[in-house]
Amino acid sequence: MNHIITISREFGSGGRTVGKKVAEQLGIPCYDSELIQKIAEESGFAENYVKEAGEYTPGGFLASALSNRAFGPTNEDILWEIQCRVISELAEKGPCVIVGRCADYILQDKAKCLKVFIHADMAFRAKRIVEVYGEREQSPEQRLHDKDKRRAAYHRFYTNMKWGYAQNYHITLDSGELGIDKCADIIADLYKSKA
Fold this sequence. Notes:
Layout (H helix, E strand, L loop, with lengths): L2 E7 L5 H12 L3 E2 L1 H11 L3 H7 L11 H4 L6 H19 L2 E4 L3 H4 L5 E8 L2 H12 L6 H20 L11 E4 H4 L1 H15 L1
Parallel strand pairs: 1-3, 1-4, 2-3, 4-5
Helix pairs in contact: 1-10, 2-3, 2-5
């Protein structure tokens, strides 16, 4: 089994950046937006749709989705199956960092995972999404709340696990307190000690 680092994160905490820095330090691939591209290619859905649907539970993204389940899987269910397959295939190729997409759950019996959760306080994240993403269409705090709420609901729907709950991860790091670079250093050091 390959050693994989899975990074779950609160929106705006810098988890994606941490993942990329860890991968650079270790000389292994980091899959984030590449996952969305691969899932889009395999499913035939547009990348934007895949990106958005990956944070909505059936019934949340399309109001009629729950009633549609009586007639077979929803688009979200189809994407979930493809996502599971793509993540499993990437993990089989070799050591890597996978950001988001419930990889910690999907790989729990398929790879040796270092499961990480990156979080930070609201002020740090609000400042960061304005600086990094130029978010301004609504209050940054409301955007953070909405995005985290969707991620938590999606995670619970497909994994039956509580997103962000410390017991579900090997380590949780506060990027606001520690800084992005220090978080990356800690994860890389942990990985090296386990590999």
